[in-house]
Write a structure and sequence with these properties.
Blueprint lengths: L1 H27 L5 H24 L1 H8 L6 H27 L6 H24 L27 H16 L3 H7 L1 H20 L3 H7 L10
Helix pairs in contact: 1-2, 1-3, 1-4, 2-3, 2-5, 4-7, 4-8, 5-6, 6-7
Length: 223
């Protein structure tokens, strides 16, 4: 089982690197797009080692994180919109570098990288706290409500973390144009959360009580 899982994880990782590289360097027209190398480094290097840790410590969670086959039509739309956002945002970042439309100071990229890495650490903490997490909206047999740690502050800390990740990525790339494109993500994720909570309220015992206890979805005292 671990051999098959390792192979599947490696294939997804490999093609992820290739696809992101194409989306960034091809529009840029050069491999000297240092911001793209920086983003790929802080994205894929931690991802590689996190994958090894999950494979050794929690292969079941890794298996769930690799599963992207969504059964619900609303969630499939969310996935498509998110994919379109990345496609447009990365291509525009490369074109912005190539033609010098709006050049941002290098320090913006380094600040963005720091936020990105901090978000990655929060992402790892969320995965540690909630081993039921998967990429699809579903309730598994024996699943329980997690209400400790970050889940005691907001109901969907993973989505809050991904907002930080996705909004810092275009800053690493030095593209304010792409940043504007990525501002669509909070709107997209709001749609996912609405559908997800409807499923959880219906199928996960104790979720209604948890929702009444933890009032905020992503941002304490705001949302």
């Amino acid at each position: 089982m671990k051999t098959d899982l390792c192979f599947k994880a490696f294939v997804k990782f490999f093609f992820g690197v290739i696809i992101v590289g194409i989306l960034l360097f091809l529009p840029a027209g050069t491999f000297y797009y240092w911001n793209a190398w920086l983003l790929m480094g802080i994205l894929f290097i931690p991802m590689f080692f996190a994958g090894i840790v999950l494979l050794l410590k929690n292969p079941e969670l890794l298996k769930k994180r690799l599963n992207t086959k969504e059964e619900q039509a609303e969630q499939r739309l969310v996935i498509k919109l998110t994919g379109l956002m990345f496609l447009l945002g990365f291509i525009l970042a490369g074109l912005n570098f190539r033609f010098g439309w709006i050049i941002m100071p290098d320090r913006v990229s380094w600040v963005g990288a720091a936020v990105f890495l901090f978000s990655y650490m929060l992402y790892a903490e969320v995965l540690r706290e909630n081993t039921y997490l998967s990429r699809t909206v579903e309730v598994r047999k024996g699943q329980k409500v997690v209400d400790t740690g970050l889940y005691g502050i907001v109901r969907h800390p993973l989505y809050g973390v991904t907002i930080l990740l996705f909004l810092s990525a275009p800053l690493v790339l030095g593209s304010i144009i792409s940043f504007v494109v990525f501002l669509a993500y909070p709107v997209i994720i709001a749609k996912r959360i609405k559908n997800e909570e409807a499923v959880l309220e219906k199928e996960l015992n104790g979720y209604v009580e948890y929702k009444n206890k933890v009032k905020y979805k992503i941002i304490p005292y705001i949302w």
